[in-house]
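Forwarding the complex inputs:
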Amino acid sequence: MARSTARTIVGIGALATASALVLTGCGSGFSDSGGGEAGSGELTSSDDALTILIGSSGDAETDAVTEAVAAWSAESGIDADVVAASDLSQELSQGFAAGSPPDLFYLAPEALAGYASNGSLTPYGDLLSNKDDFYPSLVSNFTYEDEFYCAPKDFSTLGLIINTRLWEAAGLTDADIPTTWDELASVAQTLTADGVTGLAFGAEYQRVGAFMAQAGGSLVSEDGTEATADSPENLEALTFVKEQLASGTFGYATIDLGAGWGGEAFGKEQAAMVIEGNWITGAMENDFPAVEYIVAELPAGPAGQGTLQFTNCWGMAADSPNQEAALDLVEYLTSTEQVLAFSDAFGPMPPVESAADQWTSDNSELAAFLAAADYAQGVPTNDGIAAVISDFNAALENLKAADPQQILDTVQSNTEAVVG
Amino acid sequence: MTALATAPRRDRRPRSGLRRGETLAGWVFTLPVLVILGVFLLVPVLMALWVSFSDWSGRGSPFAPGVGFVGLENYAAITTDGGLPTRDFGTSLRNNAWYVLLVVPLQTALSLFLAVLVNRAVLRGRGVFRTAFYFPSVTSSVAITVLWLFLFSATGAVNEILSWVGINGPNWFNDPTGIVHNFLGAFGVTSGPDALTENGFLGVTFWNWLAGPSVAMTALIFMAVFTTSGTFMLLFIAALQNLGGDVEEAAMMDGANAWKRFWKVTLPQLRPTLFTVLTLGLIGCWQVFDQIYTGTQGAPGKTTVTPAYLSYSSAFLGQDWGQGAAIAFILFAIIVFFTIFQRWVLRERPVSRRRARQYEVRPTGRSMR
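Prediction (whole assembly, two chains):
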C-alpha cells in the first residue's frame, strides 16, 4: 500500500509539473497575441485576409453578404472570407478567448458593453467617412462610454400588423386604424371573436416594452446611467397590458395562443393584429402567402408615439491585424447602394438616412416601419442587462396574474446592479 | 479492494537490480496516456478552476498579466449576494433538483422493469422488444428534443390524445407553473404560509423551492425517462443474465413466490448494477444541457434553466466567465457529494438483527408469519 501511495504522489507531482509547464507555455503564447493595444485612431494594417463572421437569418442573407464581400474583394484586392456562425455569441466568445477573433462580425447592442469594456473591440465609428449618415438613435445604440464603437448594419422597428380580411369582416375601415391606446383596446375588442384574439405579441420586454415607450417609460435613462424601471410610466403601461390580457382582447402569442411567435399566430389567423418587426414580411411571404395584411405605426400612448428598435453592428476586433481593410469593407457594406441591396435581399431597413427615400418608395407598404425610426427607443446596452431582461421576460409571462408594481420593483433592483 | 487484501505482501526494501528498469519502462509506457489526459483533461480543469477565482473577461489568456485574482467573489455572487445571479443559480438548482428527484427513480424502475420483462425466457421475439426499447437511447438527443417539441406543443399529439379522454391538456412548453403548486391549487391553496413565502434560500423562497418542476420541465422529465431507460435496461439485462439459476431455484424450493423471489433474491444480487445505474443516472441528470439548449433555452419563466445551462449562458452569453466556471465547480461538488452519498446508502451491510430473525428456523416450524 505504501508503495502505491508513494507512486501516486510521484505521479501527481509529475503531472502537476507537466501541467505547470504547459500552463506557463500557454500563458506566454496567448499574451503575445492578445496584448496588442489598439488605441482609437490608429488602425493596424497588413496584407492579411479578412474573416467575417455573421449570424445569418438564412441562405438569403448569407448569399447577399458573401456576394457583397466578394465584390469588395475584387475591387480592393484583399481576400475576405464570410463565415456563417451557427451560434454567433458562442463562436465570438471562443474567438476572443483564443486570441484569434474574426476581423469583422455581427454584434448585438447588448453584447457591446461586455466586449468593449474588456478591450476586445476597436472603436472605429468616428473614422467612418459616412458616419453622419447613420440614424442618431442607432449611433447612440452603439456608443459606449462616449465612443462610437461600430457601424450599424441595419435595423428594424416594431409596427402594428393588421390582417385585412379579419379587419374588414369585423366592419372596420382604414379610418379605424388605432392611434391611441383607447382606440387600440376598442378595435382589439371588436376583432376578438371565437378563436381569434384581437392583438397578440410575444411575452417579452422586446414587445411589451413598446407600450412602456408609449407611456414615456424605459428600463434605463437615456444616457444609460440610471435605472428607471419602476417609474409610474412603466407601471401605467404594464397595468394597461395586464388589463387587456385579462379581458382576453390581447393575448401572448406563445402562452395564450400556443404559437411559436407572433408571426405564426398572425399567419394562422389566431390573431387579427400582432406587434412585430419587419422580419415578419419574410415569414408571411414564405409560410403564409395567402394572408393579406397591412402595416401601421403603433398607436400613441399617454406620452406620444413609441416603439422599440432592434439593430446589429459590424464589430471590429481589437486583435485584427488588418483593421484598415476592415474599415474600408465596413464603409462599402454600409454605403447607400449596398444597404438597399441587402434590404432587398433579406428584409431589414437601411441604417443610413440617405437610403430612406429610395427604400420608402420601393417598399411603400412597409413605410410605417421606417417612419417609426423617428421615435424608436433602443434596447438598453449596459453590461449585464441581458440577464436582467431575460429575468423581466420570465416575469412578464405571468403578467396576467402578477402585480405589475412588484415586477417593476424586481427589475429596478436588478437593473440598479448593472448600471452606473 | 478484496484483490489487494488477498494479494501476497510485496517486499518493501529497495528493488533488486533486475527490477529497477521496470519502473522507468512503466512510466514510459503510460506517458502517452498521462500526457493526453493531462493536456486535454487536467489542464483545462485547472484552467477553469483558476477562471472561477479570477476576473477574466473572456479576452486572450486567463493567465495574461491583466487578469486578477478575486478570491471567492464569483462564488459569493452566485450564492450569498442575493442579487440576480444568486436568484438565477437558486432557480436552476431548484429546477434540476426536481428533475433529478423524478427522473432517477423513474428511469431506474422503468429500466429494471423492462429488463425483467425482456429477460423472461417465455417471451417471444425478445430481440425485437430489446431493440425497440433501446432505440431512443441511440437516437441523438437533439432529434428527440425536436420530436418532443412537436409532440408536446399546444395542439400536438399528446394533447390530442388527452382530449380523447376529456382532458384539456396544458400548453406544455409554455407553462411555467410548478406541478406541486398546481396540485395544491386544485384544492384552493394558491399561496403558501408566510413562513415559506417570507424566507428562502439562494434568493428563492421556500414556497417556490417547493413549486415542483414546471409543466414544461415535466415534459423534459418524460423525455429523459424515455431516452435513458433503454440504456440502463441493457445494464440490468447483462446483470440478470449473470445471475446463477441455483439461488433462484433454492428460493423456489423454500416456497418463495415470484414476487418475493424478485425482491428478496434477485434485487439484492443486482446491487452493484443498481449502484452503477443510479450513479450514471444521477450524474447525467445533474448535467442535463443539450435538451435545454436545443429545446427551451430556459423558458418558460426560467423554469427549465439548469446549472449546466446557466453556466454556459452566464459565460458565453453574459460574459461572466468567472461565475460560469464557479457554477460548474459547484455542480461538480454536488455530483461528487451525491455519488458518495449513494455509495454509502447502497453499501454492503451486515444483515440487521430484525431482518435476520425473519430467516431463523423456528422450532415450531409451520407457523411462519
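The CA atoms of residues 152 and 313 of chain A lie 4 Å apart.
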